[in-house]
Amino acid sequence: MNVPSQSSSICLVIPAWCETVRLDAFVQRLFPALAASGLSVTVQIVDDGSPSQLAEALADRCEAWRAQYAFVNPLHRLPTNRGKGGAVYAGWDLACAADACWLGFCDADGSVEADELLRLCREALAAPAPVCLCASRHVAGADARWGSPLRQALSHLFAAWVRWHTRLTVRDSQCGAKIMPAAIYRAVRRELKEERFAFDPELLLACQKAGATIREMPVRWRWQPGSRLKLGRDGWAMLCAIRRLSRVPIGAPPAQPRAN
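The structure corresponding to this sequence follows.
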């Protein structure tokens, strides 16, 4: 894949659905670190169809943050809940329309800490060639605290399920921080259909099949209480979403409609 030369401009998207307390605590650490970093970063928070009262509260918080930090964009509100992937893509599409050179996202709960996000950005910008960087809890050097042995075991089992069904080389597709050149995202954007549980593997698989370089970077990660993901409710849907990826090869021509 031919990718234009690197630039220091990064758009970091934070998807948020019914997030006020955890996001507020996270940005109190993230924004001062970004301001002191010297990096050219803009932050785009995307409200993923939260109820109006929560969305309005988040919009008010964004305006307060914008008054203090010039790199914070106005809140982008989705009219309905699309899922984390849908919110990330909405933010990235806005950034692409503004000719951003690099795109990233991080989870609103702050499980990947501010200094680790800055390290991810610096690693991408310092790479000798454009690269998709993924925070990882499953590679050597990672420092992950899961909250319970069950969560850790399920994360590794799900990662194995993803690799087995999709042949994705990444060991941890689900860790909530990634950064990539906008040119790579633009090249694969039309292929991306999943917006919920399987959006990370589908995105990385599309990049892998397009010939992009993908590198996992070990990070310090801490499980945060208050997760919206419920294993009993969502586990089966996650497995089914990965099965869909194994049955619909990315890059294949669309199916032709049957003649009546």
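Confidence is low (pLDDT under 50) at residues 250-260.
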